[in-house]
Structure prediction request, 248 residues.
Amino acid sequence: MPPSPQVRPHYPPPRDPSRTLPLEPPHLHNLITTLSLRPHIEGGYFVETDRSPLRIPNPFAGPSAPAADPTASGTHALQLDLEASASSTSQGAAPDTTEPTTGGNALRHAYAKDQDTRSASTSILYLLTPANPQGHFHRNKARAVHSLVWGRGRYVVVHPGGEVETLVVGRDVSGGERVQWVVEGGCWKGSFLLPSSGSGEGEEGGLLVSETVVPGFEYEDHEFLDKERAGGVLGVREGELGFLVREG
Prediction:
């Protein structure tokens, strides 16, 4: 794999990810509320749009362990805390962060309670904006297939062998930009918004992506890259890519 180009952010990170909605311009505020997007613990906003009712054997299952509440710790607990903080602040017409009773999110409380099976697939919409412009390094056990809806951004993928791959996603396909890309399970992934290249979508409209995870996403299969491990994972590029490592 050829060396990837140097990476630098184009927008400052938010001071408080739970309070970015009031900072969004009206058209993005309307998009977020219309699509019922929620603040994402990785950064940006998301909504789960589909969770397959088909259950398959969990390919990541390890030794049996006592059943535990998946919302009590780990990234699921962090996500719930973020949503609670977002809903408790004075944000005007903030999106409803109560648990839906219909659609894919209706199964949210069932996440990871059955360690023997997984949903065959799950899908989300994921949005980065100038006020909430980056997704922090994380990895999933399952592979994720991404498709561009609109906008422009850069994804940074660190493979298990240490190779760093970067790719620009956008509509300029002849210029090498991607409209579909796959991140395999076990790879560290980060992303950030790029300015538009003449279309007006990158800065004004953010980056909207559809992401399908196979087998389906569970918080138990997700982890963040932390500061303690960043040097070992990012190597000589830690100083360059460290802005994508989540604080805390």
About this structure: The CA atoms of residues 22 and 91 lie 6 Å apart. The chain is about 15% helix and 30% strand.
